[in-house]
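Purpose: get a first structural picture of the assembly so the mutagenesis plan has something to point at.
Setup: two entries, given in the order below. No constraints added.
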Amino acid sequence: MVYSTWIKQLQSFAFILSSFVIFVQSDVPRPRGVSLSKASLYSPTKDFTCFDGTVTIPFSYVNDDYCDCFDGSDEPGTSACLNGVFHCTNAGHRPQNIPSSRVNDGVCDCCDGTDEYTEPNACSNTCEELGKEARAEAQRLAELHKAGSHLKVELIEKGNQKRSEMAEQLSQLEKDKAEAEKIKAEKEALKNELEAKENEALKVYREAEEQERQKKAEQERVDVLKESTEHFERYDSNNDGMLTVDEIKVVNVFDKNKDGEVDEEEIQYFFGENESVDKDIFMATTWPLLKPLLMMEQGMFKPAQDDEEVDPEAEAEDPSRDDTEDLGTDDENLDVDLPQEDTHDQELEQEHTRTYDDETQKLVDEATEARRQLTDAERTVREIESNIRTIKDNLEKDYGLHQEFATLDGQCFEYDDKEYVYKLCLFQKVTQKSKNGGGEVGLGNWGEWAGDDNKYSVMKYTNGVGCWNGPNRMTTVNVHCGLETKLLSVTEPYRCEYKIDLSTPAACDESNSGQQHDSHDEL
Amino acid sequence: MKTLGLLLVGLLAISGSFGVDKNNFKSCDQSGFCKRLRAFKPEKSHYIVDFENVMIQDNLLFADVNAVDLESESKTVLFRYVLKISALVDSTFRVEMEEVNPLYPRFATMLALKDTPIADQLKQVSKKDGQLVVANSKGLKVVITADPLKIEFLDKEGEVAVVLNEQSQMLVEPLVQRAKKEEGGDTVEVEEEGQWGENFKSHHDSKPRGNEAISLDVSFPDADQVYGIPEHTDGLALSTTTSGEPYRLYNLDVFEYELDSRMAIYGSIPVLYAHGSKRTVGVFWHNSAETWVDVVNYADGTVVSSLVNLVTGGHKRRVTSRFMSESGLLDTFVMLGDTPADVFRQYTRLTGAAPLPPKFSLAYHQCRWNYVDEADVRGVDENFDLHDIPADVLWLDIEYTDRKKYFTWDAQKFPHPSEMVANLTAKGRKLVVIIDPHIKREAGYFVHEDATDRGYYVKDKDGKDYEGWCWPGSSSYLDFLNPAVSKYYSERFRFENFPGTSKDVHIWNDMNEPSVFNGPEITMPKDCRHYREHEDGAEGLHTFWEHRHIHNEYGLFQIRATHQGMLDRSDGKYRPFILTRSAFSGTQRYAAVWTGDNAAEWGFLAASVPMCLSLALAGLSFCGSDVGGFFKYPEPELMTRWYQAGAYQPFFRAHSHIETKRREPWLYEPATTALLRDANRRRYALLDFWYTLFYEHARDGLPVMRPLWQEYPKEQPTYTIDDTYLLGNQLLVRPVVSAGVSSVQVYLPGAESGTVWYDVDSYQPHKANGYFSQEVNIAKIPVYQRGGTIVPRKERVRRSSALMAHDPYTLVVALDANNTAQGTIYIDDGETYEYKKNKFIYAKITYTSEEIAYSFINEKASFPTKSWVERIVIAGIKTPPKAARLQQAGASVALQMTLHKGNDVLVVRKPGAAMAQPWTISFTY
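Result (structure tokens, whole complex):
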């Protein structure tokens, strides 16, 4: 923007709070609210140019309680500019920069009280006192860090040791794996050979089996035909060979949702677009839909699917029972391998129960033994691979600059509050368990280090159990220096976002002089 | 705050969709009287006035009316009524019709009217040919036709403006005894369908008094549109209801209410306005029972044209309406305008205007269900400062209580409420806590024990304490109709009775429809019993009112008691702030309202404008929506646009559901946080403008947020515009309420009068000429200042409004075509009633090319403000003056000026004039 400025003589009006004030606190004279480092930019002997270079004004306009500069630089000592900064020296304590909007607003923001200069008695100078406290706190922290650092040395030693042990283990495991794979290959060859013989011997039995199966299927088809015809005739109340909408309306079983009437939707479900169905269509399309309902009515069949849908909803109604959401997840984890093993066992059992002639039986036994041995060999390889993965994962984990966090991996710490017991297993997961019973709820799994200045001051555990209508639970762990590794507090500041304060010697730093919270530069 | 969300979680999870479950709420067909009355469409009204028995005295006319059997030749009189017409000041008439000697007295709505309306005079003009003509002191005539009864109200030109019973739908169902008949020697009560009981879902309504509905049709010749009868979610201009449901007025807690609907929601204000280029008029249906309103607009394409021709003789402009209520008196006020401002004033003259609110309440409010503990509150408070975002109020939702027992604190989470409040007030901030009307039924809870012992609860149909289900679980409801209960409730707000509170803790009355999770339509059964003043010896139905009679004013009774309590706790020194969810006529005298439990969707942002506009016309100017949306999570663009819109709506509060992700302004990425900060700062810069608007509203009762047609009543395109509005007559606001747009169409009214509108960001002038396209980047809020106005601003935005009290003003002068402008400003201490003792400044600021003058409108009043004028911005200046001098208190000072030639803006630099005294700045050329 271009301004054409013409200046009339200025007379300050009696009550205007401040015009130009030189504020002398130290040796260098500078306008009010200007830090020592910027003092040279304000020279009373020449016109003032805003820091952004856009406007030049007479020096008498500096701190005259009127904002001339877009960047606020002409009013360091007043509240005139929305984006200005006021510097307080705070002799005896730490200097501070505050937004101009806090100058003369009735709130004491600077400990030296210089931000409230229009009411000189409104604020007392508390800098000495605060400085003393801050120095004592800094001292305490420095000592804590010093003492903690001794413990940390041990942690580092153990951490490095653990790492080299893991590296050793890894190379041993790699060797073991090669060996195990060799055995597996041998066992596989043996199994293939014996199975081929077994197959040959069993061929005749299998053919007989197949015949029986076909016979059974034929019988089943006849049964279905009979049953569906029976039902068709029962519903076809006027016996005209056509089943009509009116006829099924009076039959309870067609009332799929059990609301007391067979509505349009249900008719559509069973009949599609048809007004009525003949026996063939009935058998082909309606019967398969109807049969499960009939079975359900007779109590022979329960749709598992519905149960699963209903349960979590019912639980979610009661927000105090958050933990129940987790049960499902745990169950799933447990279930993963079970069905496969079940079917496997059944097959074996079937084969065992059948009787063969002695020679065949011998071949079957040999093949079975070979299969078992191969399974064992495969399991051994899997186990070794799994161990290798775990160790590799751990070796890749970031345990701090000097491995100081390494020995904490897998260590668990608990914290009790009024309602819950929280458990943090470092580098693994965070859980919560209600004292009123119920399972553990996952509040997050190890994610990453996430400190701003010091990466190793904050841990994130993410992707916990989902909240209703909300995000997955997550936990932030603030890591503080302490002589003991323990949980100091657990809170849930945001719904489903947890915060843990953890103390540990691993976070101590001898070079820390207790000044990490020094900066009050909010801008 | 919220509805019974958690109870419905199961349902929601199945359907997976968002939206109201209409099955929970009645359609007209499911509401006995609505179904019955809507079908009542006689060809001829059966009410006939007996002109032999008319009495006119002072401002009153009494006439006998007979309901006759039109089928019988002799016109047998079935029931006798008395018609009463009163002339009231300010072009208002009141029409009442009641049975002569009814079986029981009907319920007269108690709290809607501010005072007894002021009488005018009524005199007879003529009586001939079956027509009686009377007139008020201004000569406004009322023509009463005897057979059948019809009442026409004429405007000052003598043209018919409002007609009652033109459509023969006037009805006052006579109260009758339950018929009995002999049957096999026993006397049995005759069942007539629905008359003595109705069912809805699993609920039975016992209807001990039988049917007692009333109905009246009101026609508005020459009207283009009708407005009012909030609260609904459809447009500001009402639509024809012939092919659908009528508008419903019944205060209900509607979970996930839907948009563009005539369903009843939280508030019910039965005032309707008809507007056309000829005049604006209104009717106020003074009734607190369940009410349905049908509307037929003859200009509407859906109205059959033959019907139009029949009724209007081909003249298309006409709107008819029809009110139907379940019970109560037939009592209606006809307000004859004849401008929009006239009729809005007439309505607030009857029901009251909002009193001057405490200043902080016009600033920014930060709410969430819930700030969980004291540390959370402190953290939110500190984060506003850390991110340099101004905020005045933090709110606590239900979780702060000891397990939903109101007037208590959760001792673990809020062990030191006084310190928490002190920490806020140290920076000029306040706290608002929620107090709902349901009372937890728990042994040992003092309110419950007191209410049980003293019989303070609403009773069920059998006279036992009614038990419903709400947040605390099993709950009962205080019967505020009993003056002793209201007094008891008021006393709960005393500081000693509610430890931790102070004058800086204000109150949120939520759930006061009342919401009852297991009740019919999620509210209280209609046959519940309320206190009724009665004579000794009275019994049965004479000893109580039913909930059906008072339903829509239940919440008003609660906030009235809260208001009294908050006055009493500070011995009448400080102005209370109350937020209520339910609303009725008169609510504005005590509380602000918000649009309830909306969702983080663009549609709800857009709906906030017509919803608040409609409420504003019905007296409730202090309105806003949950900024960001209550349910769901607003993505950055929606959040930004909502803050920008909220900054220009009267009640500006962000709020969110407990299960949603946190969304305080600093939780977005910095670019969005900066936009939210900017929106808040714009609000704070204009706080004194808002405060002045609300002061003027308290004086004149006019909407603060107003539709364009209020100021431009002849400008037809404005009649259906409800995405744009005016604040006072100074600012025009057109919030951006849709996603991803790069421009919006803005209608600038006033072309005929050569009005100029200045973009408040650039001072760029736009000549009014209907629609123009405004480019909008994400930072842009389309707001325009009308040429001819002066708006006061405070550019030094601080942490809270209280900290800005002494700050200097910037006056923005927007010139009209004649190079003139006027404005007003109101200044006081912001929180006490001292202004009633003349401790305030109400000043006008007048600009001409010779001078700009600041002078007190009320010269008896004064206020020792330390504020001064730091800047005067004059937009649209064609010939800049060469010199300016300030004269104040005998001194004269030369001032500096800066001209910004690009857009004709002159800035007077630092006049330094004190606002405590009048001043003048003169210009020379």
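The first helix of chain B runs from residue 9 to 15.
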